[in-house]
Amino acid sequence: MNFSHDTELSLRSACALVNTDRVDGEQLGQVAALDDFLTEWGWTGRRDRDDAELAAVHALRTRLGAMWTLARDEEAMVAEVNALLADTQARPWLTRHAELPDWHLHLADDQDPLARRMGAETAMALADVIRDGELRRLKSCAAPDCDAVLIDLSRNRSRRFCDTGNCGNRQHVAAYRERRAQAGPA
Ligand SMILES: [Zn+2]
Ligand SMILES: [Zn+2]
Q1: CA separation (Å) from 49 to 16, 83, 99, 156?
Q2: Most Cβ neighbours (<10 Å): which of 1, 47, 109, 162?
Q3: Are the C-beta atoms of 86 and 124 separated by less than 8 Å?
């Protein structure tokens, strides 16, 4: 795995954003919930804390969720990433700050609208993934009753389940029960 630390962080943050309405309902229904999400993921810069900002983040979430499903279609993904880079007017610059003291890229000005900054950073991270030929790391959770997405950053790309809904454990328990049932009473 050779993604830079800020690319990995952007990918995990994007994944978490997409999943905020895919497990246990809407988790970003209120401005305060968005505020908590941003703090949890170390987002710096402007925060309006109003409904317009929240709506823009919801729209970005929908767009990113749709992009995740294009992981098997490289050409289509490239077109979407280019569109997102253009729409967000991505403009890379290096910075470091208390939340992330290693040098890393920001893709927009700290005073640009939040959804634009989030979109630009995600687009740039996805551009890294495409350039490394690693789009297959963008996955959907393998649990049949789960719509969550995941970014598989494991060495051998072996992850199958999201980390939002305890899906891996649930599937292991289900498989164990099935084996026990097939084996019949002891
Ligand atoms: Zn930063
Ligand atoms: Zn899941």
Answers
A1: 19, 26, 20, 40
A2: 162
A3: no
Q: Which ligand is nearest to the CA of 95?
A: 1
| 3-class secondary-structure state, position 186 | coil
| Spacing, Cα 186 to ligand 2 middle (Å) | 32
What's the CA-to-centroid distance between 103 and ligand 1, angstroms?
Answer: 8
For residue 132, the enclosing domain spans 5-183
CA 171 to ligand 2 centroid distance, Å? 10
* pLDDT at residue 180 tops 90: no
Does the pTM of the predicted model rise above 0.85?
Answer: yes
Ligand nearest to the CA of 42: 1
CA of 169 relative to ligand 1 center, distance in Å? 34
Amino acid at residue number 18: V
Report strand pairing: 100-106 vs 138-140: unpaired
CA of 20 to the centre of ligand 2 (A): 12
Is the confidence at residue 186, as pLDDT, over 60? no
- The DSSP symbol for 102 reads E
* pLDDT tier for residue 165 given thresholds of 50, 70 and 90: low
Q: How many domains does the chain have?
A: 1
CATH of the domain at 59: 1.10.3300.10
